[in-house]
Amino acid sequence: MRTYNQRVIHDDPRLRDRAPVFRDRPEAGRALARLLAAHSAGGAFVLAIPCGGVPVGVEIARALGLELDVAPVSKILLPWTTEAGFGAVAFDGSVWVNEDDVRRHALSEKDIADAVADARAKVERRTARLRGGRAALSIAERTVILVDDGIAAGSTMRVATAAVRRLGATRIVLAVPTGHRRAVELLADAADEVYCANIRAPLHFAVADAYANWQDVNEIEAVSFLDPLRREPT
Prior knowledge:
36% of the residues lie in helices and 21% in strands. The protein is an alpha/beta fold. The strands form two sheets. It has a seven-stranded mixed β-sheet, with helices on both faces. Strands 5-6-7 form a three-stranded antiparallel β-sheet. Helix 1 (25-35) crosses helix 2 and helix 2 (53-64) runs parallel beside helix 7.
């Protein structure tokens, strides 16, 4: 456990700067659940960021006996790529744009508006599809464990954290199997606690490097992870 700016970061010292360390996302979720054991009581619930965070969040919720919901967030993508972004849209409709990236890439107002609209549509589609018509769990006055499959730059997790804070969570716990050291430290100042089993600090960081078996999770697969948990008796 380490402390930064009065925030607390929990990791597994045996996994520091190692890769790969997990077979797949479900195994990573089980490893993370062991670190989160102290949160198995007290009314916390898990919010998983789709789609990659869903199999991780499902394993945490199952192991700790917690409720689970999804927190769709999407990067606002640069016009010429499907990977790099210059901001993010969160499930509460909030938008964050990195103005430095806008200037660096000389993005026009139309470029920004089109990209934001695409990201917003993706968030709305995933919210409807992954919740399956269920109402969102109430965040107000509760501890929220916000889960993804890893943190590289941390932009989507940062936006999701801000949305959860605005919706009235009393305590925000960020939980990821793997993360870049600098991004984890920066996010620690936005949350009450951070759990990151595998903290690494290479010059070139990729979340995928922590996993022996890595592939994107699509929306159909995310639903297939969520449905069995929702059918289990509470």
